[in-house]
Amino acid sequence: MKLSKIETWITYPTLSDDSWSEIKPFLFVRLTTDTGIEGWGEAFTLPLRESGIAEFIHKLSSIIVSMDNLLPSTFNYKAKEISNKHRGIDFSAATNAIEISLWDIQGKLKNKPLSHLLSNKIKDKIPVYANTWSEKSPSIKALSERAVQLLDEGYGGIKIYPLQNRTIEEAAECVSSIRNSIGTKIPLMLDLACPDDLNLAIRLAPLVSKFQPYWYEEPVDGEDIQSLIEIKKLTELRVVTGEKQFEIPHFKQLLKESAADIFNPDIAAVGGILDMVAISKLSSKKNVKISPHCWNSMSIAASAMLHFCAANDNTDMAEIYPEYLPHAKRFSDISFKINEGHATLNNKPGLGTEINVSSLSAICSDYKETTI
């Protein structure tokens, strides 16, 4: 079995149906084998980098062409080899998308869900939380109402951004209000989104600790390991980091320094599912959980995330962007359902996600095809 074609699509940015947030461009890849099997993948993207990542993907087709088996493990090894230890997150996202596609192909070839390729011990339900991010900087009242609504829709936890256009005091008031609205039993995640001033995270921590936040995410940029260590020493809150980082060495260093309690590498940026598995195995030895980040479409990438979580006993709650779901349903059959705080997968072969290419193409700004 050989690769015969590789295609990429980049979607237009748009507003969510409820205008709560802006939906960024998504980058999808489809690999087609000479036997007609299709594998879908998705790459994490940042603004203005989408086309560059797509170009990486097409250039990397030269690696896949040389492979006799189209195994994710073979590609993962070759991608690391060709990068010569100079990947960067955009290159990492490109290899990530291809590896997800290869897993989808293997699942369809063997008639097994991705999770069953990763483990013999599968969770039927994966705990999920809702991300409430909005570019509109919603008021505390609007955010509280949104949190209650999302819990009614079946999410098991709520993540908020207390420092978004707020002072320290206003951030503490925001956390207090949300906690009062959702009650004391619901996990409430606080994402500080890497403030430039480390003192903001240090000063906010004692003001919100009484509201029992589930975790304290990105109190500083993940590359700043020394500051993470300092925050860990000064607060009893569980520190989360890793969404902007990739590959295994960075996470090994975090573990060596005991700089975080939970890692949240992005499922479509870290380098590949095999890297996620490796990071999780290393983390479990230090009692550090993995809670995958997923600032991507709620179709391909979210399916990969949930399959990884279903097959892994060292994962915490998985991230869902609720307003992205209606958008994803315009061009795909979602592989999971959310109810009572958990996601359940449809257990179809591979990722279990069907893409309507015509519908996808209709909302895309760019399409490229490489025929082998």
Describe the structure.
- With 372 residues, the chain is of the alpha/beta class.
- Strand 11, helix 11 (273-284) and strand 12 (289-290) form a beta-alpha-beta unit.
- The protein is built from 14 helices and 18 strands.
- Helices cover 40% and strands 19% of the residues.
- Helix 1 (50-59) crosses helix 4, helix 7 (168-182) runs parallel beside helix 8 (198-208) and helix 10 runs parallel beside helix 11 (273-284).
- The chain has helices at residues 50-59, 61-65, 72-83, 88-110, 114-118, 140-152, 168-182, 198-208, 225-234, 248-256, 273-284, 300-310, 324-328, 357-362, and strands at residues 3-11, 14-15, 22-23, 27-33, 38-43, 126-131, 158-160, 188-191, 215-217, 239-241, 262-263, 289-290, 318-320, 332-333, 336-339, 342-345, 354-355, 364-371.
- It folds into two domains: 3-111 and 356-371, Enolase-like, domain 1 (2-Layer Sandwich); 117-345, TIM Barrel (Alpha-Beta Barrel), CATH 3.20.20.120.
- Strands 6, 7, 8, 9, 10, 11, 12, 13, 15 and 16 form a ten-stranded mixed sheet that branches. A four-stranded antiparallel sheet has the order 5-4-1-18. It has a two-stranded antiparallel sheet with strand order 2-3.
- The longest helix has 23 residues, at 88-110.
- The chain is globular and about 60 Å long.
